[in-house]
Amino acid sequence: MTETFTFRADALAAAVRAIVAAAGSHDGEAAQVAANLVEANLRGHDSHGVGMVPRYIDAVLEGGLAVNAHVAVRQDSGALLTLDGRQGYGQVIGQEAMELGASRAKAHGVCVVGLAHSHHLGRIGQWAEQCVEHGLVSIHFVNVLSRPIVAPFGGRDARLGTNPFCVGIPRPGGEPILLDFATSKIAQGKTRVAYNKGLAIEPGTLIDDHGEPTTNPRYTVVEPIGALLPFGEHKGAGLALICELLGGALAGGATGRAVSDGRRRVLNSMFSILVDPDRLGTAANLAEELEGFVAYATASPPQPGVGRVRTPGEPERETKARRLVDGIPVDSVTWSEIVGAGAKVGVAAARVEALARG
Ligand code: NAD
Fold first, then answer.
1. pTM for the full model?
2. Residue 265 in contact with residue 65, Cβ under 8 Å?
3. For residues 165 and 146, what is the distance between their CA atoms, to the nearest angstrom?
4. Triad 262, 91, 146: Cα angle to 5°
5. CA of 187 relative to ligand 1 center, distance in Å
6. Distance from the CA of 161 to the center of ligand 1, in angstroms?
7. Ligand 1 pocket by C-beta < 6 Å: which residues?
8. Atom of ligand 1 at shortest range from CA of 44
9. Which atom of ligand 1 lies closest to the CA of 179?
10. Same fold: 71-149+157-184+235-293 with 186-229
11. Half-sphere exposure of residue 174, counting CA atoms within 13 Å on the CB side?
């Protein structure tokens, strides 16, 4: 087991912001990237938090991530928008794409957004939350263009990305329903976190480079690479394929068959459907049925070891409330990689440490 440090969210964000800015981003972009990554940590998804900074900095330095890029509109048909993320920071591109989509959904009742070629969009729930703030239901299919890391159902090697799927449903006067998950059994970043902490992975999650079951997270982190298995057997693998075809192909991007050019970027393409329940004329029905059904479903007697039945989105909100008080844990390996990323762009370790310690 490695050591764990704990940081206050605002101080950690200040350290990340300094590193991202030193890599060439203007201050607004650096602040947006830092806030998004720290928010992922606050919500308990360390796989998509500040631990991504070293990969982002490498991507900037290798030319796979364009700093200060903005979304470009490739085709505009009113309720249909085809956007190009131009390999810009997903934290900026995702925000701009959803803002454009939300304004169209408000005007037309619905907007279909095809967003291709964004750099890593991070925690996809962030984009559903943005739609929820506009009172919109949203559905997101995402593919990941990086080295394939997930085996298709029945396959012995990796052919898919961790292709996340996400749905957000606003709840008048209450917290939204927020379903947001990777279609692999666990998110790839979680194996990186486990590897850095020296922990084994649950049996039934990974195969090694010969297609044999393993619990060693190294097979998704260092050569020789094996594969993560999809969640839900053939059903999860099917959804991962759909994410590839809708998120990758229909959105205007590429699918994972594209041969990697060896650059350490992570590109996402996302196919999103944004719906305004008011314009559909079903907002009142949705609100009433949602409250009634959530009360009904969560009243199910909990199984042993389960405190109470929760809705999607609740665990993340609980973790955020806790981490805002207790701080964000970062393992020492991840932390040294972040400090190392700072050094690559000329931010001294002492400055990163000082900022992060507040
Ligand atoms: P996960 O396995 O933790 O599942 C999260 C989902 O399940 C959430 O909606 C959560 O609220 C719900 N959930 C968890 N426990 C629950 C419970 N007890 N009761 C009810 N609901 C519960 O998530 P994951 O698959 O590890 O994905 C983590 C993050 O990684 C996501 O935010 C995803 O968007 C992100 N991701 C991004 C990329 C990318 O390329 N950008 C790729 C893969 C994953």
1. 0.96
2. yes
3. 17
4. 20
5. 8
6. 15
7. 45, 47-48, 120-125, 144, 162, 164, 166, 178-182, 186-187, 190, 268, 310-313, 315-316
8. 3
9. 9
10. no
11. 15
The closest-lying atom of ligand 1 relative to the alpha carbon of residue 314 is 11
Domain locations in the chain as residue ranges: 71-149+157-184+235-293, 186-229
Minimal CA–CA distance to 211: which of 201, 223, 219? 219
CATH superfamily of 186-229: Hypothetical oxidoreductase yiak; domain 3 (3.30.60.50)
pLDDT for the residue 73: 98
Lookup: tokens for 180: 């947001």
CA 110 to chain centre: 24
Burial class of residue 191, CB neighbours in 10 A (0-12, 13-18, 19+):
buried
Which tens digits make up the pLDDT trace of 237-282?
Answer: 999 999 999 999 999 999 988 755 666 679 999 999 999 999 999 9
Please give the average pLDDT of every successive group of 10 residues along the chain, which has 358 residues. Answer: 91 98 98 98 96 96 96 97 98 98 98 98 98 98 94 96 97 95 91 89 96 96 95 97 97 83 80 98 98 98 96 98 98 96 98 97
The residue to mutate among 37, 48, 146, 320, having the most atoms of ligand 1 within 8 angstroms of its beta carbon, is 48
The ligand 1 atom nearest the CA atom of 124: 34
| Cα 156 to ligand 1 centroid, rounded to whole Å | 25
Q: Are 231 and 185 in contact (CB under 8 A)?
A: yes
Q: How far apart, in whole angstroms, are the C-alpha atoms of residue 102 and residue 132?
A: 10
pLDDT (tens digit per residue) in 19-74:
999 999 999 999 999 999 999 999 999 989 999 999 999 999 999 999 999 999 99
CA–centroid distance, residue 290 to ligand 1 (Å): 21
Question: Measuring from atom 3 of ligand 1, which residue has the nearest CA?
Answer: 181
Q: Specify the pLDDT at position 263.
A: 62
Q: What is the CATH number of domain 71-149+157-184+235-293?
A: 3.30.1370.60
CB-neighbour burial class of residue 344 (10 A; exposed 0-12, middle 13-18, buried 19+): middle
